Amino acid sequence: MGFDLYGLNPINPNNIVKPKxxxxxxxxxxxxxxxxxxxxxxxxxxxxxxxxxRNNVWFWRPLWQYVSIGCGNILTENDIMEGSSNSGxxxxxxxxxxxAARLRRLDKDGMLSEYDKFMNKKVKKARKNNKKVRELxxxxxxxxxxxxxxxxxxxxxxxxxxxxxxxxYEMEDWTGHxxxxxxxxxxxxxxxxxxxxxxxx
Length: 201
Hints:
This protein is of the alpha+beta class. It is 57% helix and 8% strand. It has a four-stranded antiparallel β-sheet. α4 (93-108) runs antiparallel to α7 (182-195). The radius of gyration is 22 Å and the shape is extended. The mean pLDDT is 95.
């Protein structure tokens, strides 16, 4: 799962022509034509930085959380909530420009760096915890397979294995799966500045 952001009216000073989509169901479209399209689309997005921004879910959630904290008086509660879904919610040009300015100010003032240190400590601690959780899960799985058969999977565990598995599973700290990245914030700020507003899909 990922989050695709599309600029509503991206700045394009060199008037670069955006490649047109194929009808992907058309059997006459060759692989060579598809490859050429993907290459042209990638080049367009690199040159028109406000046209497209993408994160997988693991990077988008901490990025959007930071934006929500740092730009809380720019975004509405609905903006913040919809930004965590693929609903097609739009952020206006004015808000996008203000987000970019705010993120750059936080970076310049050292707040972004401080938040990065804070989050990296949290992620490191969570990953250390999760390593122990994995070890506990592995031990339980070995025990279950020895007593219940080699094909048993956690979803089919009888008691008391099921309760024990669930308790171990709840010990997982999901912070460890969502890394915070300073360059991702900076790239997002650049996208916002040049997007003319954007849609979150």
